[in-house]
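Quick question: what would this complex look like in 3D?
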Amino acid sequence: MSGDGVREAVARAHRAEWARIVAALTRRFGDLDVAEEAAAEAFAAAVERWPADGVPPAPGGWLATTATRRAIDRIRREGKRDGKQREARMLHDDTPHEHVGAIDDDRLRLIFTCCHPALAPESRVALTLRMVGGLTVAEIARAFLVQESAMGRRITRAKAKIKAARIPYRVPAAEDLPARVSGVLAVLYLVFNEGYLPTGPAAGPVRRDLTAEAIRLTRLVRGLLPADGEAAGLLALMLLTEARRPARVSANGELVPLGEQDRGSWDAALVAEGHRLVRERLAAGEAPGRYQILAAINAVHTSARDVRDTDWSQVVALYDQLVRLDPSPVVALNRAVAVAETDGPHVALAAVDRLADSLAGYHAFHATRADLLRRLGRGGAAREAYDRAVELAGNTAETAYLTRRRDAAG
Amino acid sequence: MQYLVSVIDDRTASATEEEMTAIHGFNDRLRAEGNWVFAGGLAAPDTATVIDNRGEQPLLTDGPFLETKEFLAGFWVIEAPDLDAALALAAEGSKHCNRRVEVRPFL
């Protein structure tokens, strides 16, 4: 096999097997550090050995066996250590080691442990990307624009807390499951959004690596929790958002708003998959959660071949449903954008102005106001609002777009 | 596994009669269900004395070693199998004593 072929085989095995190997080792040895290091060593061994020995017929099995051997070696080396102290460092896992159906996947335990609410949100994100996603500390640090050493400390500290405070390695009890799943989904959505609208001047307009990783991990969670409507909803939302990525930034690096995008360049396969998931959730007949409603809104947008074909009253109706679940000012702001299309910019502006107290520091509030003022022919006021939006916007493509609009506002 | 559940407050002995009844009821349940190790309320930080006997003779200093607006007003030491169980008990404790609490594992 060619060098490229072997590299591709290692990369494929990494995507498919990393989380499974780390999760199984953590389960067996009760130690995230041992699991992480042994898994990393097994992949390093594959990079070294496969070019000469050939890719084994069952790469996953080869990696799991190699990683297990490395873990045992390391534990033997550390065996001189006081047994009690070792035991105290073990992750707590009080469930019987027997198969109890599809939900008893070690990877789910790993995900729930990494997304535990007792960890800081930024630690949950970092730990999930490292332990479940298999990204290196350097890659995660780059993605979030922090020093590698700082990211390393964040992950080390989180692992130490899991051990010391005995954060359990298990799938939460049925009564806690919905709240804990929503915590997991929030972490994945955060990763996706940081990829879709990165902040900071050093970041590009879109971080494809992060959106792809978020989608991959959400697919995994969706596969592990097939009955969870919100996992399906979040996956659909990500797919329908990602589908528009090719049209979202112009050749000169400027954000292209939804209404001006070249809809022919949207990814038709992602749109189709997203629509399929939304239809599946509608057919389930359960009351939808926030991700399912957001996915449905995106499905309405991506169903319109031309922006003029958009069913805006359906969008407003979905936002009404979302407001009942989440009466936050940000949801009200997004609803107002749709109201501008059904009831005109005048009505929408009145709704937006009511949010001034709570959203004065949010760039999208000023950008939305600016656009409505522009449409009402109030150029001076629009310009001021664009000024404020430019000041607050963190994404390079968005800043470029808002600046051009401001200059055109006269 | 034992956890320290610290009660955070800016006043001492400030629990109302209603809160005290709720705390006693919660304590009885901790005992009945095997989670009880120890609990107590503390007098105000300005009643504290710091002792440093690392030198020739003990050096006494009046007052707490840390001056803060909020302080440790009381605590539970509970026995729990893992952090999820400890957090569930601490959440109840917070409700009953009507204060914020901090959960910290023993080594």
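Answer marked as accepted. Chain B is about 30% helix and 35% strand.
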